[in-house]
Specification:
alpha/beta; three-stranded antiparallel beta sheet; ten-stranded mixed beta sheet; 14% strand
């Protein structure tokens, strides 16, 4: 079947398709001024950008329409509905706003289980916020880049001061109230050289689920470009930002974290990159969109109801409609969005198609394909780093996949590694004794 025929057949689907929306109720407005942020400048897309940040607020009419449609348009077989609140900094909307969200979700739940996740920089968190999240069982993603010297390097407030102490206060409040939380660490040109320090720090602050997000952005050379951070199809000159990680250094970072994790923390600490890799080695489709073969079912919605193909593609040319005018199923089943999702696989360079780790990487996110392959095609910027990482973890993943197929916990690998080390140590001891004996 050709791509065109596939798209035409998909248009005829009567059933509802699965989809997810990253909702940004305050758009790109934030109380921090993170140097590497990919979203702050998105306010330039909207006319109200100059001096009127208060207008970047999803009004209650739009909010109610969004919540109602988002629940009603999920397929019937989806027993639970996951809302994701992002920004900018979503807590700037105020706690009462999120109490309204909880109320509206209960109003329209229709017997479905509603789950919420919210990403925050932690600066506004106080007892009331932490208590609300705990009582409503919201999962909170806390942005923290490691020890203070790394965190404060790129995450200052609007006054230029570091925010580490405020984030650590949020951690203590989450622990005090029993708020479920995980951590998101932006890996940049500074902390990328210190995987063990970053990992041990995150464990020490109580994180048992970690996400590592590498900075990999290209910037327009022209200073008057409407958006300075551009996508790979940008027609003019661009360069990699200084905060972006070196590809092989990021591979070494993942390897460094993996080496610590696989010896001591399998089953007690969950690292998103490792979980998704294990899915691939078990023969499943990777659940994280950047490593999936195709995409297109994860939309982004701005404060005014504008819907975009993806959170990585909030650019005017990738706007696919507005929730006040159309339904989510119209967006997700449109020919434009189907083509967007299929293009990830259709545009794979030859080097990816021939790669033994295609099943685990699938060419990464098209937004990040601004590197150059051996054949001169566009390829994932982090290709060399990911290849190095996959090559390193392959034997461990094969063992853990076999354990799972035998219905045994992957954590057993830690005992295997410990036993192998014990045997190697004993062998070295024997060899040392033999050398001493031969000298006599």
């Amino acid at each position: 079947m050709t791509v065109v025929n596939f798209l035409e057949s998909e248009k005829k689907i009567k059933g509802k398709k699965h989809f997810h929306v990253m909702s940004k109720p305050i758009g790109p407005i934030c109380n921090l001024d993170c140097t590497y942020c990919y979203y702050l400048e998105k306010e330039n897309i909207y006319d109200e950008k100059k001096g009127t940040p208060s207008k970047f607020r999803m009004d209650e009419k739009t909010l109610e329409i969004f919540i109602r449609k988002y629940i009603e348009e999920q397929p019937k077989e989806a027993g639970k509905v996951l809302f994701t609140w992002h920004g900018g900094e979503p807590t700037l909307m105020g706690l009462d706003y999120f109490k309204t969200i909880a109320s509206l979700q209960k109003k329209y739940a229709g017997g479905r289980q509603i789950e919420n996740s919210l990403q925050t920089n932690g600066v506004t968190i106080n007892d009331e916020w932490a208590r609300f999240f705990a009582e409503e069982n919201w999962l909170v993603g806390l942005s923290i880049d490691g020890p203070q010297e790394f965190h404060d390097a790129y995450r200052p407030n609007k006054g230029g001061k570091g925010t580490f102490d405020q984030v650590m206060r949020a951690v203590k409040l989450f622990q005090k109230h029993g708020t479920p939380y995980n951590t998101l660490t932006v890996v940049n040109d500074r902390n990328v050289r210190h995987p063990k320090r970053v990992y041990e720090f995150l464990k020490n602050v109580g994180s048992t689920f970690m996400q590592f997000l590498p900075v990999q952005e290209i910037m327009a050379v022209a200073p008057d470009a409407p958006l300075q951070l551009v996508h790979p199809d940008y027609k003019h000159e661009s360069r990699v930002t200084k905060e972006s990680v070196d590809p092989e250094a990021f591979g070494d970072f993942l390897i460094g974290v993996f080496n610590e994790w696989v010896q001591r923390d399998v089953g007690s600490v969950f690292v998103q990159h490792f979980d998704v890799a294990l899915e691939a080695w078990c023969g499943f489709r990777p659940s994280l969109c950047i490593f999936a073969p195709t995409c297109g079912d994860a939309l982004a919605m701005e404060h005014n109801g504008d819907v975009y193909s993806c959170d990585h593609y909030v650019y005017p040319e990738y706007k696919i409609g507005n929730i006040l005018e159309e339904d989510f199923q119209d967006f997700i089943k449109s020919v434009k969005q189907e083509r967007f999702g299929l293009d990830k696989e259709q545009s794979l360079p030859l080097q990816c198609r021939d790669c033994k780790y295609l099943m685990a990487c699938n060419g990464e996110c098209p937004k990040h394909r601004f590197g150059t392959s051996r054949d001169g095609e566009k390829i994932a910027y982090l290709c060399k780093g990911y290849y190095k990482y996959f090559q390193h973890i392959e034997p461990y993943m094969e063992v853990m996949a076999k354990l799972l197929h035998m219905e045994r916990p992957p954590a057993e690998i830690m005992g295997m590694i410990a036993e192998q080390k014990r045997q190697e140590k004993a062998l070295r001891k024997q060899e040392k004794k033999a050398k001493k004996k031969s000298r006599r």
